[in-house]
Specification:
The complex is a heterodimer of chains A (145) and B (664).
Chain A (H helix, E strand, L loop, with lengths): L3 E4 L9 H10 L5 E5 L3 E5 L8 H5 L5 E4 L2 E4 L9 H5 L6 E2 L3 E2 L10 H5 L5 E4 L1 H20 L1
Antiparallel strand pairs in A: 1-8, 2-3, 4-5, 6-7
Chain B lengths: L3 E5 L8 E5 L3 E3 L12 H4 L1 H5 L9 E4 L2 E4 L2 H19 L4 E4 L6 H13 L5 E2 L7 H10 L17 E5 L3 H4 L1 H12 L3 E5 L5 H4 L3 E3 L6 H14 L5 H7 E2 L11 H8 L3 H13 L3 E5 L1 H4 L4 H15 L8 E4 L6 H6 L6 E2 L3 E2 L3 H10 L23 E5 L8 H5 L8 E6 L11 E4 L8 E4 L4 E5 L12 H11 L8 H11 L8 H5 L4 E2 L25 E2 L17 E6 L15 H4 L6 E4 L1 H7 L6 E6 L2 E9 L7 E5 L3 H6 L16 E7 L2
């Protein structure tokens, strides 16, 4: 299973370091932090959906499913904007070209590396759920102590 | 050819490492504090370095214009003017402001120059962040600094955060608090506002502004009543406990003062006292009060009564603001302390420095702080890397009075303070010079030169050495030579060198000799007071009574995550400014309705000190009856309070009686 970016919304402190890092790296931020002012902050970004609405709606094949990831070919893109509307997270933007997360090519994406709160991680789903279970068990055990 | 050069972030005092590459930056994943992560300001740090508005040449004011002058002319003029002021008016007529943004070496030499010229009027912006910490922790614990490193917080079982919005102001600290939470630690946040830091809390104590002492004494009251204090620690490690009478601070009475429920006060006390390792983290919500020194004292009393200090995960952690604010203070760039925390009132301690510096006499007694400078009859003022006009309310309002004498400002930008000067000198920024910075956790890190300064900009150390030479003093212009002298002058830095401070993560003082590994946790066996014991010191709540019929609300000030202090750096960073472009004032929805203010309205906020315009932001995060304005915008500074904490000369920046109305 391929590693993707996962979010733990309980950890996010809403600092927007991910936005600044992404913008520095790509010229345009492909992640944005939505803050619900008295409650929490939630970074919104491409989840590389397995059944991706953006791929389904793209009539040129510019967006296509490639294994576990959604790939984008700008040569085929007509800038019609349908994918912007289709994405349930609003994670695609149009700025003279389509702006969406490509996981920074290879290695760890900058948003994950820069996150002070470790709210964003690059993991495969099994590892994420395992560590969530581990943390939940730890917290329950701490309450017993 | 080295492709990347390690550096330390120029913003806050967390001391995060990253690499500078030829065209950009890379994350440093093996740095002990930030592990590669950076906050938004750190991510935008290069915007400052490469900015088109960087000062490039020395400039002299002639009439209403600035003309470019040579370094030789500029430096000769400084020496002439300083000399003239001294001859005509004596040392009381000259003053210096060092910088919590400059290196230890620069601050050390700057204060040395001031003192060789016969004045203790040398200060830095620490006055406005942690001067109460300096006074209180030095007296009570012996060392005015964080007792444990930041990463230690991951080992704490209870973390009590007082008056700190660290999730915005020191975001990397939140990383270690979250690690503690992963282990099941309880986090308590005391703050009148619902901040992103309060989101981390298991228990948020939304207390009334200025009631911290009542809350802490109330917690001690519960602890003593329930026998949760550490008898052995009190007996073996402290003195003064018998004078601590908090019997009046019952949860019920404290509830009526703080606005918290008695149950929450009891719960906080039990969580803190019962945990195996508890830490107190505090910031300017504690210090920026007219009772700031007493607030810090109360925090220390709580830790001492419970024996929650001197162990991993257990201690007192004042979060400091600027990348080198701890260092600037260690170096004695303070009106009340010489290097190594030698009091200006202690001739014996100062005599050691007199011999080291080969000086005839050195000045005694407290000098002027920035707040006092506008009203002092100064003939010469030398400011190194501080924008006092946008960070000090007294100076903001009476800036013209600074111009009575000759004023020199060395900085990287034409700040509002530099605009007042007669002579402006272009300084090298952090990545264009070498030397050491000391982070909030006493971590001393050597930074390397990664870039060339723009135009004719020069390192501050070079400028100071050139000025001193013209006055007949020989000061080192090489940072390593200056550090060697600091080894002699500051006992905690005795063993610090380019080699150990230049290693990954540097070294944490005290480091008494070159082979010493540093001292992450202080006070493990004895306190650094002369008697080796901590001094429990009773303090009491006095009602603030700042409100009046004309000004019924309380204005709170603080910071936001995307800006930094006076804004001279972040306001020049496009990525930060576009996300947070203008001054705002937070208002509670019920207050807003009553006042007829809607979200986004232009409003005027008035205190007894002045009026400011801002955009209203209606949010339930704000406590009823209070407003909040970030102080990065000059407007806030113009209306902040001038009242001082008499013990530390800290202005009461956190509270001011105010009113608000809709209008331009």
């Amino acid at each position: 299973m391929m590693a993707k970016i996962y979010l733990d919304p309980e950890r996010c402190i809403g600092c927007r370091a991910c936005e600044l890092a992404c913008e520095r790296e790509h010229g345009h931020p492909r992640i944005s932090v939505g803050t619900v002012s008295d409650l929490a902050a939630v970074p919104l970004y491409c989840h590389q959906c397995d059944v991706a609405p953006c791929v389904a709606i793209c009539y040129t094949g510019s967006l296509r499913q490639d294994g576990d990831m959604v790939k984008f070919d700008s040569d085929l893109c007509t800038l019609c904007g349908l994918c912007l509307v289709a994405c349930p997270f609003g994670a695609i933007e149009l700025d003279s070209k389509i702006q969406r997360c490509d996981l920074c090519g290879s290695g760890t994406p900058v948003c994950v590396m820069t996150c002070p709160a470790e709210a964003l991680v690059l993991e495969d789903l099994d590892t994420v759920t395992r560590s969530t279970r581990g943390r939940a068990a730890g917290l329950l055990a701490a309450r017993l102590r | 050819m080295i492709s990347r050069i390690p550096t330390v972030c120029p913003y806050c005092a967390v001391g995060c490492g990253f690499y500078l590459t030829r065209s950009g930056m890379e994350y440093m994943q093996d740095h002990p504090v930030n592990e590669g992560s950076l906050c938004p300001k750190g991510n935008a740090a290069l915007d400052v370095l490469n900015h088109v508005e960087r000062l490039r040449y020395p400039m002299m004011r002639v009439g209403g214009d600035w003309i470019r002058v040579s370094w030789g002319e500029a430096l000769d003029r400084i020496a002439e003017e300083m000399d003239r002021a001294l001859r005509e008016r004596g040392p009381k007529s000259i003053a210096f402001l060092g910088s919590a943004k400059c290196t230890n070496e620069e601050n050390y030499l700057f204060q040395k120059l001031a003192r060789l010229m016969g004045t203790n009027s040398i200060d830095n912006s620490a006055r406005r962040c942690h001067s109460p910490t300096i006074i209180a922790l030095r007296r009570i614990l012996g060392t005015p600094a964080m007792t444990n490193p930041i990463t230690d917080l991951a080992l704490s079982d209870c973390i009590l955060v007082f008056g700190s919005n660290l999730a915005e102001n020191h975001p990397v600290v939140a990383r270690w608090i979250l690690r503690a939470k992963d282990r099941g630690a309880a986090v308590i946040v005391a703050d009148p506002r619902v901040t992103p830091t309060a989101w981390l809390a298991d228990l948020h104590l939304q207390l009334n502004p200025g009631t911290d002492i009542a809350l802490i004494n109330g917690m001690i009251n519960v602890i003593l009543r329930e026998g949760l204090e550490s008898r052995s620690f009190i007996k073996d490690r402290t003195k003064g406990f018998e004078e601590l009478d908090v019997s009046d601070y019952t949860p019920e009475r404290v509830s009526s003062i703080t606005g918290l429920s008695a149950g929450d006060i009891v719960r906080a006390a039990r969580l803190y006292a019962r945990a195996r390792a508890s830490a107190i983290v505090y910031c300017m919500g504690i210090t920026q009060h007219s009772c700031g020194t007493d607030n810090v004292t109360a925090c220390a009393n709580l830790a001492l009564v419970c024996g929650q200090i001197g162990r991993p995960g257990s201690g007192i952690l004042p979060l400091r603001g600027q990348n080198n604010v701890q260092g600037a203070c260690d170096m004695g760039a303070l009106a009340d302390f010489y290097p190594g925390w030698r009091s200006v009132d202690d001739p014996m301690a100062i005599d050691e420095l007199r011999r080291l510096w080969n000086a005839g006499t050195l000045p005694l007694g407290r000098g002027l702080t920035a707040d006092m400078m506008p009203d002092a009859d100064l003939r010469f003022l030398h400011v190194m890397g501080e924008d006092i006009v946008n960070s000090d309310p007294t100076v903001s309002r009476r800036r013209e009075k600074l111009r009575r004498g000759f004023m020199v400002v060395q900085d990287i930008f034409m700040t509002d303070t530099a605009k007042l000067a007669d002579l402006v000198l272009p300084a090298a920024a952090w990545a264009e010079k070498e030397g050491t910075f000391t982070s909030t956790e006493r971590r001393v890190q050597w930074i390397s030169r990664a870039r060339e300064p723009p135009g004719e900009a020069r390192p501050d150390l070079w400028i100071l050495a050139e000025v001193a030479a013209r006055l007949g003093f020989e000061l080192p212009s090489d940072p390593e030579e200056a550090l060697a002298e600091i080894n002699q002058a500051v006992p905690a830095y005795r063993g610090i060198s380019r080699s150990n401070a230049g290693a990954r993560g540097g070294i944490i003082w005290p480091c008494p000799h070159p082979d010493h590994p540093g001292t992450p946790v202080l006070h493990t066996e004895r306190f650094s007071t002369p008697e080796g014991r901590a001094r429990i010191t009773p303090v009491h709540h006095t009602p603030l009574e700042r409100g009046s019929p004309e000004h019924p609300m309380i204005l709170l000030t603080g910071r936001v995550v995307l800006h930094y202090n006076s804004g001279s750096m972040t306001m020049r960073s496009e990525g930060l400014v576009k996300r947070d472009p203008e001054s705002h004032v937070d208002v509670h929805p019920e207050d807003a309705e009553q006042l007829g203010v809607a979200d986004g309205d232009a409003v005027v906020v008035e205190t007894e000190w002045g009026r400011a315009r801002a955009r209203a932001r209606v949010t339930p995060r704000q406590k009823r009856g209070t407003l909040f304005m970030p102080f990065h915008f000059p407007e806030t500074n113009m209306i902040a309070s001038e009242l001082l904490d008499r013990k530390s000369l800290m202005p009461e920046l956190k509270v001011a009686a105010c009113r608000i109305w809709r209008g331009e």
